[in-house]
Amino acid sequence: MSGFQTPASPRRRFHKRSMTGFTPTEIKAIDQSIPIKAREAWTRYAVKEFATPDDLESLFINHVETTLARSMYNCDNLAAYSALSSSIRDKLILHWNKTQQLHTLREAKRIYYLSLEFLMGRALDNAMINLGIKELCGKSVDELGFNLEDVIDIEPDAGLGNGGLGRLAACFVDSLSTCNYPGWGYGLRYNYGIFSQKIVDGYQVEAPDYWLKYGNPWEIPRLEIQIPVDFYGYVTTVTDPKTGKAKKQWQGGEQVLAVAYDFPVPGYHTTNVNNLRLWSSKPTSEFDFQKFNEGEYDSSVQQQQRAESITAVLYPNDNFYQGKELRLKQQYFWVAASLHDIVRRFLKTKKKWSEFPDLVAIQLNDTHPTLAIVELQRILVDLEGLEWDDAWDIVTRTFGYTNHTVMQEALEKWPLELFGNLLPRHLEIIYLINMDFLKTVSKKFPQDRELVRNVSIIEESDPKNIRMANLAVIGSHKVNGVAELHSELIKTTIFKDFVKVFGPEKFTNVTNGITPRRWLKQANPELTDLIVSKLGSDLFLVDTVRMKQIEKFVGDPEFRKSWALIKLHNKERLAKLIKKLTGVVVNPHNLFDIQVKRIHEYKRQQLNIFGIIWRYLQIKATPAGERAKKFMPKVSILGGKAAPGYYAAKKIIKLINSVADVINNDKDVGDLLKVVFVPDYNVSKAEVICPASDISEHISTAGTEASGTSNMKFVLNGGLIIGTVDGANVEITREVGEDQIFLFGNLAEDVEELRQDHQMGKIDIPDSLALVFEEIEKGTFGPYDEYRSLIESVKYNGDFYLVSDDFESYLEAQSTIDKEFKDQDNWVRKSIICVANMGFFSSDRAIQEYAENIWNIEPVSEQV
Ligand SMILES: *Cc1c(COP(=O)(O)O)cnc(C)c1O
Question: What family is it from (predicted)?
Answer without folding.
Answer: Belongs to the glycogen phosphorylase family.
